[in-house]
Design a protein that fits this description.
By secondary structure, the protein is an alpha/beta fold. Strand 6 and strand 7 form a beta hairpin. Helix 7 crosses helix 11.
């Protein structure tokens, strides 16, 4: 997730010395992927690079660098021999000290990310604060970072191919792009609220839809709430390969929403809260309307992973979130569908009488 952009921007703008600790390379097994990061200040940390001895040692080293104005430091950590961690791989960790006010590259990156424009952050490992930001059509702070035309071209190649973070020689490239994990949750009751809370901890975009007024409370930053008199119409607003969870206060509304979802050909997951008897009733009505058997097979009801039978909202939420995550991973591994970023938050007005 890209919350680090806002967190780092706020800290540096306030003049707080920080050290950004980033996984820059791995060989063998490791607790986190390349690009995972944490921000270390004098009093706390934000994010994680995997915990355990690796994170403990990196936090200690980062604290020793606070306030320094030096070039980035790249350190190698063998997890098995020096850390006693059973992963057994080797992790390259990048330490970057930031002691000044909000720097230009970070200000521009924050603006671009707010506009949902994909970018690549390029770090020159041999220059203090040697960072530039490259987009498909623009480039920012390339002179400050000492970026050559070859570096800019390499960044745009990674941007076009959506390649993950990687280090090549003295340069570290990081793709910053909105999540391709899009979820629509219909219903803001007890279960819907618990589901959204569980899902919002993932790197995803959530559209939370209900037709009741003033029902949404304390929504996470990656959740867009929509009050709509006709929730079923919101199905058409979702990008291809989205996941849907339907759990409104009305069976009739559930039926109409699922009907619109199932008739899309690009759905990654369609989950409906309810029992097997509810599923059978819905299937019977859909068949009478001419829905094909293979389309009906895409309806998941009851929702949740096998083996979790609890009916408390939190239990349902955990099971449903796991099932949605599994469906999304399956689509990412097998589909060539291009994903779109989620749309801005909106509020539907009442229909004119």
């Amino acid at each position: 997730m890209n919350e680090w952009i806002d967190e780092l921007s706020d800290l540096t703008a306030a003049g707080e010395p920080v050290v950004v600790v980033t996984v820059a390379g791995i060989r063998g097994s490791a607790p986190r992927e390349v690009g995972a990061r944490m921000i270390v200040t004098a009093t706390e940390t934000f994010g994680t690079i995997g915990g355990g001895q690796l994170e403990y040692q990196c936090t200690r080293l980062a604290c020793e660098m606070l306030g320094a104005d030096a070039a980035p430091v790249l350190r190698k950590f063998p997890l098995g021999s020096s850390m006693g961690q059973c992963c057994g791989g080797v992790v390259d960790v990048l330490f970057e000290s930031m002691a000044s006010d909000l720097v230009g590259w970070l200000r521009d990156l924050r603006a671009l990310h707010g506009q949902r424009e994909p970018a690549v952050v390029c770090t020159n490992l041999s220059v203090p604060q040697g960072k530039c930001v490259i987009t498909a059509a623009g480039q920012f702070h390339v002179d400050d970072a000492g970026a050559t035309t070859a570096v800019i071209a390499a960044a745009r190649e990674r941007l076009a191919e959506r390649r993950s973070a990687e280090r090549i020689g003295d340069w570290f490239y990081e793709l910053v792009v909105g999540s391709d994990f899009n979820i629509a949750v219909f219903g803001a009751g007890h279960v819907g609220s618990a589901v959204v809370q569980s899902l919002s901890a993932l790197d995803c975009n959530i559209r939370w839809v209900d037709n009741r007024r003033n029902i949404f409370r304390n929504t996470p930053p990656n959740v867009r709430t929509i009050e709509s008199d006709e929730p079923a119409l919101e199905v058409a607003a979702m990008p291809p390969a989205s996941c849907y969870l339907v759990m409104t206060h009305s069976h009739a509304l559930d039926f109409e929403i699922c009907n619109r979802i199932l008739r899309r050909a690009d759905v990654a997951y369609c989950g409906l809260i309810g029992s097997l008897s509810k599923r059978r009733r819905f299937e019977k009505r859909y068949r009478s309307q001419g829905m094909e058997p293979h389309t009906l097979e895409r309806l998941v009801c009851p929702i949740g992973v096998a083996g979790i039978t609890g009916k408390k909202p939190a239990e349902i939420a955990v099971a449903a979130a796991a099932d949605v995550l599994r469906a999304h991973e399956k689509v990412r591994g097998s589909s060539n569908i291009e994903y779109a970023d989620n749309v801005r938050p909106i509020r539907r007005s009442k229909k004119k009488q």
